[in-house]
Design brief:
Length: about 200
């Protein structure tokens, strides 16, 4: 009988990893994922509807890449596999560029924890770097944080480009937000309304 690629004569292994190594990688993956999703993402965006997406996608990527790690693949197939996961898009309303960034983070985390060489100290350092980098960016260390929010505006006389300072002052007075700039998405002259996207800084 031909030897199985999953088992060898030294001991039971899965994709070249012993059970202890596999458990360590899985624990680091899930631990980092919990910090990214439950602590960082939920703290800033208060969205729990994406928990299933983040956790399921990360786990699937981790297991698929782990099992395929012992399979010989061409360079084109490897890049194709990564492209399928990294370019995956959920065409549902409400998903933002920031949510897509977190999707990429959980995909990359699953890939790294399943195939990256090195022991647990190196993997722990990688996880810490991902978390600290994300926290630093979310906290506005490099630049002040800005949020975007759509609004329906009823004074289209101020929508004109020449009236932009007055428009910003009016939006700040009405919303109480530190509105920095505004995008005019649509103007309805019949209803005398405009659909705007305001960009404001967090307090």
């Amino acid at each position: 009988m031909l030897p199985s690629p999953v088992f060898d004569q030294v001991g039971v292994t899965l994709a070249g990893l012993r059970p202890s190594d596999l458990a360590t990688r899985l624990a680091l993956d899930l631990g980092t994922l919990i910090v990214l999703v439950r602590v960082v993402h939920f703290r800033y965006y208060r969205r729990s509807d994406l928990f299933l997406t983040f956790f399921a996608l990360n786990l699937v990527v981790f297991l698929v890449t782990l099992l395929l790690n012992r399979v010989e693949m061409t360079m084109g197939a490897a890049f194709g596999l990564f492209a399928v996961f990294s370019m995956l898009r959920y065409r549902t309303e409400g998903i933002t560029a920031r949510d897509m960034t977190y999707l990429f983070l959980v995909i990359g985390l699953g890939l790294l924890m399943s195939v990256a060489p090195g022991g647990w100290p190196i993997l722990l350092a990688v996880c810490a770097l991902i978390v600290l980098g994300t926290v630093a960016l979310e906290a506005g260390v490099l630049a002040p944080r800005e949020r975007a929010h759509p609004v329906m505006y009823d004074n289209i006389g101020l929508v004109h480009a020449a009236s932009r300072p007055a428009l910003l002052d009016d939006l700040r007075a009405r919303t109480g937000l530190d509105v920095r700039h505004v995008d005019v998405e649509e103007i309805d002259f019949v209803r005398d309304t405009a659909r705007l996207t305001i960009h404001y800084r967090d307090a």
